[in-house]
Amino acid sequence: MPPRAGRRRFRRPLTLGLPTVWGAVAVTYKLLCPLAQQNGMGARIVSSAVFFAVGSGLVVHVRRALLRELRQVREVAGAAQNALLRPLPPRLEGLALAAGRFSAARGASVGGDLYEVVAGDHGVRVVMGDVRGHGIGAMATVAALLGSFREAAHDEPELPLVLRRLERTLARHLHERSSAEYPVGGVVPDAPPAEEFVTVLLLEIGADGEVSALNCGHPWPFLLSGHARPLAAADPLPPLGPFPLPADLPVLSCGRLLPGEALVLYTDGMEDARDAAGEFFPLQAALTEAARAPALSPQCLIHSVQAELLRHTGRLPSDDATLLVVRNDRTRARAPHPEPECRARTMS
Q1: Which residues, 6 or more positions from 333, have their beta carbon under 8 angstroms from its beta carbon?
Q2: Domain 85-328 is classified in which CATH homologous superfamily?
Q3: Residue boundaries of the structural domains of the chain
Q4: What are the residues whose beta carbons fall under 8 Å from the beta carbon of 192, sequence distance 6 or more?
Q5: What SS3 class is residue 157?
Q6: What is the enclosing helix (H) or strand (E) of 139?
Q7: pTM of the full structure
Q8: What is the chain's mean pLDDT, rounded?
């Protein structure tokens, strides 16, 4: 039997037995101790001390049990989120990749941000999204959308078809969730609630570095080429959920991602983070400053920006905050030495 399983089997009767022992001590004292039968001030003080000690012991025991259960729940939730947001490979089709996130759900990396990078016959496709809210409910929506994207990215020849698959998946998911919330025989609304929405950014990077995009209410990524600048200035489509997609979905051509250049995708939790004075985090300036370091790997870039964010706010952000870096290494000469190790300390 594994040691951990043995500890759990031993801990269960201990959890049930200790409160019984504390209660038995209190009852025994009250029924059998002569001092408990007296009405004098000294006897009352002693009795009060005994019952206070018993009550304190019960409170401490219950608190430890609850903290232990909460820790286990957080571990399970964090493992589930990590299974959904699978670690990205460091390289994919000549692109260097890295992702990092802060979660607004304290103690567990459970949030509403989603991202994935898939290489297929139609190029490298990237999704970055932000589900309204965070926690277990948002994680279910993340699971539905990521599963749909991982299939559609391989199956669909055109980027608009990938987006329409995501729209249908979200509509079906919200309808099923609404059905589960209504009693049998109740009237299920045809449309999801207006507050249920997801921002989605889709990118397709061709073999020649050509970048195409479809954006539904998500912040445009930054292009790092000496400095940070927005990849595009076009108005995005509305987020998925409240309104159907238009019949025509024109794909935006964003130029080429040249060798050595990088795209930084992010969720609005990065730019919306504020310090004690209410000042927003200057993400573009932080990216420009971090990109000045020579031979900076995507992972180190993320760690550097996350450290700046923590210094700016002095605490974890109040909303989920995610960064995803995609750097074009396709025609770069292989460095004689590995990229410098990133030692920055981050919190998640």
Answers
A1: none
A2: PPM-type phosphatase domain (3.60.40.10)
A3: 3-77, 85-328
A4: 171, 174, 175, 178, 241
A5: coil
A6: helix 136-155
A7: 0.72
A8: 79
